Amino acid sequence: MSVKHIAKEYIKMFVQDAYLPSIYKKAATSPVDEKKVIFADAHNHSTPYSMRRMEDACRAAGFRVETFYSDYQKDGFTATQRAMQDFMKSYATAAAVVISDTFLPVASCEKRPETKVVQLWHGAGALKKFGYATTDDVPAYYKGNIYKNYDLITVSGRQAVEPFALSMRAKEGAVRPIGVSRTDNYFDTAYMDDMRQRLYEAYPEAKDKKVVLYAPTFRGHADAAKESDTSSVARLIREGLPGDWHLISSAHPHARENTGKSFCSEELMLIADVLITDYSSIVFDYLFLKRPVVLYAPDYESFGNLRGFYTPYEKLPGRIVTDPRTLCEAIETEYREYDPKKTQAYIDEYLEACDGSATARIVEYLK
Prior knowledge:
By secondary structure, the chain is an alpha/beta fold. The chain is built from twelve helices and 13 strands. Helix 1 packs parallel to helix 3 and helix 2 packs across helix 12.
């Protein structure tokens, strides 16, 4: 780990332990607004995909929604400090805060008990270890709980409860298998039809072709993420597949600017006939489409040793490929031989709480 990264971690600890709590304490002298629900994120300047449906539902339910969306990695020190200050002042009088990723300010103080903090998280299922289960995410020297104050952590099924509780050091009962809000999209015919139309307008070259989406995750710590070898793999696929296939490549947003035009991977997958990924949680979202998956994991052994898995990788309903020379053959074979029964069996075991009504259950919790 670089000296620069370690220095950033110590700055975070100071901000969390001293600076932000003082702002909150001063603002908390005002009463809580029972209708105010805050949506916040430190990695995006607009509503993240994982929170869009929830944000709309809260407005429809009569809550007064405030949004605090920034990108702390790109906005610079002054802008980031101002964004944190503004959030803390509003947080002090909010009925609820909704997030979908690690968000330092919400964990920086002893919050008022009247305020509910809901963590939607941006990944369904529980595949690779994260949070306090791996030093890649939270170094051993880091003091303070980056997941503090969570009252509700929504997960996709019973199998994910224990992994999330351990990874986030959650209080008892906070992790609940009530479903993942964004997966409601895959049960919404109108949403799916509209999004596919928009995607084909953006990618007219994909019409009348079999589409393969390559969407790998990043390597290392999220704040210093390293991109997997996306470009060379994409070139390999383009050169190896017949002309009736079209490739769309979408890098993880933590690794670099996404190459998927204005669409995130979870949107792009709606027109994909085959998904290629490695250890990304997008695989769980894609399963709801009942289409084939190829798991391209050339570093499977080293990744498993360094980070580790909660769910056995081999149990995922997809063909595992470690040799790049066999990747294109695996894509075509999996497309021909795909068995939706295996996918459904996995959903029934690991994603049973995602039934199209997760958002409604979460809104009910906020009322």
